Amino acid sequence: MSDFKDFKKSEISDHSTDDQSHSNGIFAEFCADRETNAALGVTAEEFQELSRASLLGTLTSKDDLLFMLRQIRAAMNPTAPPSNELTTPNINYLAETMRLKALAKLDELDLKADLRRKSPVGRVEAALERVSMRLSLARILIVQMSQKLARRSVSSRPM
Questions:
Q1: Helices 91-118 and 120-155 meet at what angle, rounded to 10?
Q2: What pLDDT digit, counting tens, does each position of 83-111 carry?
Q3: Closest Cα partner for 27 from 1, 46, 7?
Q4: Residue 115: which residues within 8 A CB-CB, separation 6 or more?
């Protein structure tokens, strides 16, 4: 049984050593790739933090290293809001923008109405509207006169 324990301990230590050397190899390869580092703009401080990444686990690929770089940058710049969070807009700016757009729309509609009134069709419509108003006033006058005549005829009858 003790042979089994010794074998198991040596197997575990071999894996951890292999994993550690593999992680170091990935990090060394990343450090040697100057073109990628220049394109990413990796700073000396970020290299130092990446070298400590072994404390968080083993690196299995270059993608793991790039993930760690993104996490380090996010931790170093806490002022930048996370990409999934919506920023709160300035309500005064939104209200002013809406007001200006509404005024522009009203001006546009007024201009269209003015052009319509000045067109031949618009002049005919205006004339018909005036005739309609006069007819409506005449109808009201006729109704009032008939009411007065009906009262007069009722009050003038002898009893």
A1: 80
A2: 565 566 788 888 899 999 999 999 999 99
A3: 46
A4: 122
Interior CA angle at 47 toward 46 and 53, to 5°? 90
Report yes or no on whether pTM surpasses 0.70. no
| DSSP helix, strand, coil percent of the chain (3-state; round to 5) | 80, 0, 20
Q: What is the mean pLDDT of the chain?
A: 78
Q: What is the SS3 assignment for 82?
A: coil
* Domain segments of the chain as ranges: 13-76, 91-155
Q: Is 85 left (phi over 0), alpha (psi -120 to 50) or beta?
A: beta
pLDDT category, 75, cuts 50, 70, 90? confident
